[in-house]
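Support case: flavin-adenine dinucleotide complex. Customer-provided input:
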Amino acid sequence: MGTIAVVGASLAGLHAAEALRAGTGDAPGHDGQLVVVDASPTLPPDRPPLSKQVLSGEWDLAQAKVPLADRLDELGLDLRLGTAATSLSPAGGDGRTLTLSDGTELSVEGVVLATGGAVRHLPGPQLGGVHSIRTGEDVTALLADLDAGPSRVVVVGAGFIGAEAAATCRGRGLEVTMLEAAAAPMERVLPGEVGAFVADLHRDQGVDVRLGTGVERLEAGDDGRVRAVHLADGTVVQADVVVVGIGVVPQVDWLAGSDLELRNGVLCDSTMLAGPRVVACGDVACWPNPHFGEEMRVEHWENAVEQGGHAGRRLLDELAGRPGTPFAPVPWFWSDQYDRKIQLAGRPTATDEFVLVDGTVEERRFAALFRRGDRCTAVLGVNRPRHVMQARMQLAQSLAWDDAAALFAPKD
Ligand SMILES: Cc1cc2nc3c(=O)[nH]c(=O)nc-3n(C[C@H](O)[C@H](O)[C@H](O)COP(=O)(O)OP(=O)(O)OC[C@H]3O[C@@H](n4cnc5c(N)ncnc54)[C@H](O)[C@@H]3O)c2cc1C
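Agent response - structure generated as follows:
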């Protein structure tokens, strides 16, 4: 057997590697060389705790381990950390060439792309005191600034990661301002009721939430550190720490010379095959999910785990000349803010109708279904895990609105 390479040693890449070794049930796993490369000099951390337990000080960074971190020896990986993939040759003959940042040219029979996303930065020079939360190094630097006792933290962006950072900083007793350029948090992707709930949840806790105003520029002091944020509406917010949570971009630039289609990440078919002998998974992969009849790229933890496994098995099928099976999950996501667990399953859009099925938004504990015509597209729960799990299982069977609504209809 030849060499298979996995690019990205984080959640999706390691789960693909595990599946490559395990096999498919019908067929044995890969017992040849399995090279796993990652640009990071250390094994990437499990990312969800970074904005929660690690940022709050409850956990050390070392406790944020991806699930397979303790099984690397058992999987027999040729793990090359601090090594980036720099190019992938187009398909040809019986393999491809993967070029690495140390100059190595690997001849591989198959490749898994699991390069995730890189954070977006605000335009302008990089100032001290301005942070993102993606890597272990990011959170270590942010913690050092928080431990110094800043008088105010400004969070730019009220998406889930920004909102978690605001909640965790507030939980540390810090003064926090959360800025959002849109009129409501997550306005582009979720119905307005959800954004209004998130804004109110933070206001309840004393966060200064400012909506509908973008950042014009950051002002630095003589020491090169940020000292104020100038907003597009002309106001100025003093800040000695700024946390930027304005999304990620899929890491695909290095694939420019390959034969793969790079559109909203690496475009795959419904089975996660991106091209001959290449699969993709996790935050970097875009694919038509047949269950929703929609092309999607999903930046959720559980998707990286499941899609990683699926992509590994798909590559084994590809190399054996077997057709793959479609990847058709109901995406699922959670976020912890204060003492609220927010869970979302499905694929909502901003224009879906928000239909409350349990609790009230005012008491910040509720379950809601999202309706688009005769379809139920998603379920959202705030401290309502049972409702979310029930609806999620239903959505996996059928997206019919009547079926989902019947779950929560009053019983006689
Ligand atoms: C702070 C934070 C909190 C989160 N909280 C939640 C949550 O509560 N719930 C939830 O569902 N999801 C959450 N997520 C999202 C979840 O963690 C991600 O969806 C998941 O980590 C994606 O895994 P991945 O393996 O696809 O990509 P990544 O984890 O981004 O890993 C990609 C890896 O590829 C490497 N790489 C990139 N380019 C190259 C290259 N050219 N060569 C070699 N290596 C390369 C990178 O160094 C990186 O290690 C959170 C994410 C963050 C950042």
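The CA atoms of residues 94 and 109 lie 7 Å apart.

Case will auto-close in a few days if no follow-up is received.
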